[in-house]
Design a protein that fits this description.
- The complex is a heterodimer of chains A (290) and B (227).
- Chain A has 290 residues and is α/β, with parallel strands linked by helices.
- Chain A has ten helices and 14 strands.
- In chain A, helix 2 crosses helix 9.
- Chain A starts with 22 loop residues before the first helix and ends in a 7-residue tail after the last helix.
- Chain B has one domain: MetI-like fold.
- Chain B has 227 residues and is mainly alpha-helical.
- Helices cover 85% and strands 0% of the residues of chain B.
- The chains are: A alpha/beta (290), B mainly alpha (227).
- At the A-B interface, helix 6, strand 11 and helix 7 of A face helix 3, helix 6, helix 8, helix 9 and helix 10 of B.
Amino acid sequence: MKRVFAAVAALAVTLVLAGCGQEENKQQAADKPLPDPIRFATEGAYPPYNMVDSSGKLTGFEIDMVNEMCSRMKVRCEWVVQAWDGTIPGLQAGRFDAAISGMSITPERRQVVDFTVGYASTPAYLVTAKDNPLQAVTYGMERVNLDEIDPAEQQAIDLVRAQLKGKTVGVQTATIHADFADKYLADVVDLRRYDTQENMALDLQSGRIEVGLADAVAWEPFLDRPEGQAYSFFGPGFDGGLFGAGMGIALRKGDDKLLDALNGAIRSLKEDGSLRKMAEQWFGFDSSMP
Amino acid sequence: MDLTLIQTSLPQLAAGAVLTLELVLLSLAAGIVLAVATAFGRLSRLRPLSLLVGAYVFVFRSTPLLVQIFLIYYGLGQFEAVRASLVWPLLREPYWCAILALTLNTGAYGGEIIRGGILSVPFGQIEAARALGMAPGLMYRRIILPQAFRQVLPAYGNEMIQVVQASSLASTITLMELTGVARAIAARTYQPLEVFLVAGAFYLLLNLVIAQGVRLAERRLARETRR
């Protein structure tokens, strides 16, 4: 295997789902009353968003959230367990009315379905050893949203940059986190690009890198392991901007009445802080979106 | 074809090519020393030595270079004893890990090539040298090695070119050499065609120089025999 030619071109395959036959239904759908019951699809295999507990019952952050939304909307709701890859086709075929499965809002999906406002985004977090002086610094913010950076957020970013100056920082190559590091850190840190998240964690342990940057959920397996006990998050979590628009509930295009109702319910959960509380319960940190 | 992308990525790719060149030159320099030592070790009449060297050649020729790089870089770093040792300042750097892996790898292949070259010298010449009362050292210097090197040159040129290709695996341990830079740019721009075309051109150029160098050396050595 000496003769390995390692240059492997990355092949970006974009699946464009065709949204046929939607136009003629649009007008009818807008006039339709809310379905009764509203059928929600979820995968049941994406902890902690949605999963099946030992007694076979659906549970998770999204399950709690939707159940609470339904009681606030005073409507009956039903759950449908749907494999991830069939989620959008099943929605279009009318097998259920809404889908909530940790689905990120992307421009490609927006072409075939409508999304509610975002309800969660797992931020990017920096990780280092618990006894590292970086942990002791007060960064002033828990979350930095990169959409519109206000002075306080800019200050937090500048502080992170100042603290990380000259340090060795790892990211996984070809991720939005690498893009973030390129844009906000590359000029002050020694940036190392890893092929996998696992290898980055290994080098964090061996001390080759002092800091790693990745999605909060991607960190969890490492931080939960015995070897990961000596490490933890530090500084603010980053989201928005190049990290995308978060996760939303997917609906058939043109189901405007249902969309408005769901958006209203999500907003009310945000306003009284219950969404934040649920997020902290399920993720151990605030993953909700403002 | 995005010509602006080619233009803007050229300086970064050139910096990557410089790192590739460093890796290749250092590994080849250390590798040829190791290869000669390996060849002599294999030919040694000291049984334990030749067995030991044979085992080294077997291991490094029979496992993928990628596995060797990972074992040296991630594997060794797992041991507290290694991290506390004197060699850790070198082993903690991906740069030296890559050079170590490439050197050990090319040393194994090169050792076999050189061993073959030494064995290709007709035994009659060795007998004649001995009959003249030549000491083994002098015999090697004057009779065997000059012929062996001429013999192995084409095969060794091949090996040098392989080291250039193999150096691209250093990108898997975070080194931003030519392939590493190209992958990072391709991932950011979603335009792999342009970037890898330029990277490929750099590799071609590098290997062109090596191939020409080997050809030149071959011609020179051939002239010496004609004289």
